[in-house]
Amino acid sequence: MQPRVSVCIPLYQKVDYIGRTIDSVLAQTFTDFELVVVDNATTDGSADVLAGYDDPRLRVVRHAETVPQIANFNAAVAATRAPLVKVLNADDLIEPDALARQVAVMDAEPDVAVVSSRHHLVDDRDRIVARDRTLRTPDLLGRQDRASVVRRVVRHGGNPLGVPGNMLFRRSAFDLVGGFPTDEPFVLDVALAVRLTTVGDFYGLPETLSRFRLASGSMTSSARRRNLAAQRVFVRRLGRDHVDVVRRRDVVRGLARWPLTWLRHQVLMSASSDPDSRTHRLAARLLAPRGRRDPASDPSGDDRHTNRNPASS
């Protein structure tokens, strides 16, 4: 029988995290789903972790040879069978009610192509670095059309929409837009979300339903610079390609925000590399929503859960 939801995990060299990621999916309160892990020819022992699971909802597809990242993401979606799909990074987590909350939106809003939520940022030890990231403004909550989404992305200068694990989308919409764009490897999450708004609406949930990992050592300083540069190029091109909805003041506002985006990126990466540092505590204070204390200032940092781009936060 076809499941209602497919969660797919493109996997490459994540032996330290993939078990926690799978456990967070299998713990969902919504149970009508399949979990598809596409093993991109891993050699680090990740395959042994997968072999340790005996759950009929889990299906593993393995590439004989390693393929490029975007190809693996598209292959993961291609391997799914359900009309609703979530792509989850192999070191991220979702909250137990993530699928239940997002499926309810899709059932109630048939013209919505993608629903997203907020996320916490966590370090190697699952400690929260910053809470409730993305969808921080009212104009991205609830149902939004393409014009509203594109303008907000341009004004933000980065990714205010959410990382892959935040999103649940319709497989039919994904196929219509051609999947993940192969020319946007550093911004595949926001690029896909914008693409999907050309065939349906975007829906933003105020709840925090996933946890995005800032793994230490996962990105070199040069890769971080390339990542940020690619994001800036994407936002500029978005403004040019959508002149029908983007106003000059949106572009100016986005450019003015860029130094803040860069600073946030540096603080978060420093915090994730040393979870016991003063920088970790500083990041918690600087990035916590107003009026709320971030549990990252608590050494335990444990709330409910045991090639990253924090500029998307």
From TrEMBL:
Pfam families according to UniProt: Glycos_transf_2 (PF00535)
Start-end of Basic and acidic residues biased regions: 291-306
Residue intervals of the Glycosyltransferase 2-like domain: 6-175
InterPro entries: Glyco_trans_2-like, Glycosyltransf_2, Nucleotide-diphossugar_trans
Location of region: Disordered: 285-313
Protein name (Swiss-Prot/TrEMBL): Glycosyltransferase 2-like domain-containing protein
Organism: Actinomycetospora chlora
Record lineage: Bacteria, Bacillati, Actinomycetota, Actinomycetes, Pseudonocardiales
